[in-house]
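Write out this protein's structure.
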Amino acid sequence: MFNIFLALTLCAGFATAASTAAWAAAPPKAAKGVPKAPDKPQDPDTATEDGDGKCPEGTTLHRTKIERYCYHPNYNKEGKWEFWYASGQKKSETSYKNGKRHGKRVAWYDAGQKKEECTFKDDAEEGRCTGWHKDGKKSEEIDYKAGKKHGLWINYDGDGVKKEESNWKDGARNGPTTTFYVNGQKKEEYEHKDGKRQGLHTTWYESGKKKMEERFESNKIEGLHTEWTPTGKFQSAACFRDNSVKWRTDDEAELKTKNCN
């Protein structure tokens, strides 16, 4: 009797081992029709609840530990695409319409502070995008039109103090750009026209006194370039033609006799 029991036990063990080996050689296939999540294993969920209601009609829910979205049979996303940090804190939330970003996109730092907020239309930025430092102070504000910078672009330093403000049109600088010292005093101001330097370029010392002044035409320095000392006294001047120096002087009396036309 013992010999018969031993034989049955060995047979069962061999069968289990063979089954395990066969599974390892050909693991089960992923659920058909579920798109792969980038750089990580699939964990599809067949439920229709997406956490904020239900997936739109005709779409399917895809959910893993760090992302969740609804998609059409052609894999185009619809509704919110949400990401989470490993800690469980939400990382980003982007609205989609038939596979294109459309509506609000919000991103957060890993501690929960808001990092960025933008609006999209047909997969392109539209309107103002705002960014924040981790302490809640603004880092930048950018105006967009059809995915291109159009309007103001404002940059702030780590303390939330404005350090640069520029004007844009259809993705190119157009109009004045101004940079600032920490105390709010202007540091530099220059102009662009259709992406090219054009017009007056002025710099200042932190005290507010003028440091340098020159002019540009189609990205080239043209005309009189003048510099002053921190106390406001004349320091030097040069005449430019086609971006090259025609003459230079550090004598203010001599400057009055010079012609740079």
